[in-house]
Design brief:
Helix content: 25-40%
Radius of gyration: 15 Å
Mean pLDDT: 94
CATH architecture: 3-Layer(aba) Sandwich
Strand order of the largest sheet: 1-2-3-4-5-7-6
Strand content: 25-35%
Shape: globular
Distance between the termini: 31 Å
CATH superfamily: Gcn5-related N-acetyltransferase (GNAT)
């Protein structure tokens, strides 16, 4: 059960697009209309959009491998790449997804630890993320490892407004 992390580059954009579609779909398709899912996937994970994000020096993507297979990925943002104005002392976990067949192997925590490591290397005071209010498993996981809800913001899935909880963890 070997696991490791690799920073993504522009050469990984197609594989990143593939895993982004797959994991987002697995996570949210049961609770959203097909039309709204399609609209979101096409906008958020368009190849040009992903290449733009991969090229942004304030964003980083990482693949996590499990037995030499890409099992999930992480996207972190600092500075003006953050999706909310949280200041220079914050690091955002914008995306953290594990393919269904690789869940329950500690990979989510492994990626979170990577995000914490990056935040500490950059002398950040807090790490934060937005999680859909109906994603109860994720909310429970984040609470268990010390995140607390500090706010909320709107998230648009196609034409439907949804609510994300903003959860924050101080870095000691």
């Amino acid at each position: 059960m070997a696991k490791n992390i690799k920073k993504c580059t522009l050469e990984d954009s197609r594989e990143l697009q593939e895993i982004s579609y797959e994991t987002f779909n697995e996570t949210f398709k049961h609770q959203n209309s097909a039309e709204n899912m399609k609209a979101y996937l096409e906008r958020a994970f368009d190849l040009k959009q992903l290449e733009k994000e991969l090229s942004n020096s304030s964003s980083q993507f990482f693949f996590v491998y499990f037995n030499n297979q890409v099992a999930g990925y992480l996207k972190v943002n600092t500075n003006d790449a953050q999706t909310e104005q949280m200041g220079d002392e914050s690091l955002e976990i914008e995306r953290i997804y594990i393919r269904e067949k690789y869940q329950k192997h500690g990979l989510g925590k492994y990626l979170l630890n990577k995000a914490m490591e990056i935040a500490m290397e950059r002398n950040k005071k807090k790490i934060w993320l937005g999680v859909w209010e109906k994603n109860e498993n994720a909310i429970a996981f984040y609470k268990k490892i010390g995140f607390v809800q500090t706010g909320s913001h709107s998230f648009y899935m196609g034409d439907e407004e949804q609510m994300d909880l903003i959860m924050t963890k101080a870095i000691l």
